[in-house]
Design brief:
Number of strands: 9
Strand content: 25-35%
Helix content: 10-25%
Order of helices and strands: EEHHHEEHEEEEE
Number of helices: 4
Structural class: alpha+beta
Radius of gyration: 16 Å
Oligomer: single chain
Length: 152
């Protein structure tokens, strides 16, 4: 769940205007940032219909630098990212980009997982502005170091 500055909605919290099963309660009057947001499904004309957010209960997003593919789950379906075909696609993306500076994350509220090719690492609830350092050990186990955002 993304932050919406115009509504003072913090990241990781359900919007006060969300109507479970019915969409946005202020859709016609929604703020500019909501009107202009495009998920990966909308940006990629070749994305199959089976990945539509209303079908999967997952919105695929990217960080501003394009280094993280983020599967943002519907609050009512926090483990939707684990259902196929979404899970298989996330694992395939992770395998293709592993070790190349790109990460796959699954997010439900503030709970975050790193989706690695061979395992998923549950980071628990973290600040969405945190930085992540992923290290794969000689035993091929993945370890993730979470650094809280710096305050000014």
């Amino acid at each position: 769940m993304l932050a919406v500055e115009e509504l003072a909605k913090p990241m990781g919290k359900l919007c006060a205007h969300a109507r479970p099963g019915a969409g946005c309660g202020i859709y016609e009057a929604r703020p500019h940032s909501c009107r202009t947001f495009e998920c990966v499904w909308l940006m990629d004309p070749e994305m199959p219909h089976r990945f539509r957010p209303d079908q999967t209960k997952v919105v695929l997003d990217q960080d501003p630098a394009g280094l993280w593919l983020i599967a943002r789950c519907d609050a009512a379906n926090p483990t939707a990212w684990r259902r196929n075909p979404m899970y298989a696609a996330l694992k395939a993306f992770a395998a293709e980009h592993w070790g190349k500076g790109k990460l796959v994350l699954a997010v439900a509220g503030r709970r975050t997982w790193v989706v690695a090719p061979r395992e998923d690492v549950d980071l628990g609830e973290i600040d969405p502005r945190s930085s992540l350092k992923v290290v794969e050990g000689a035993d091929r186990c993945v370890r993730v170091e979470v650094a809280a955002p710096k305050t000014i």
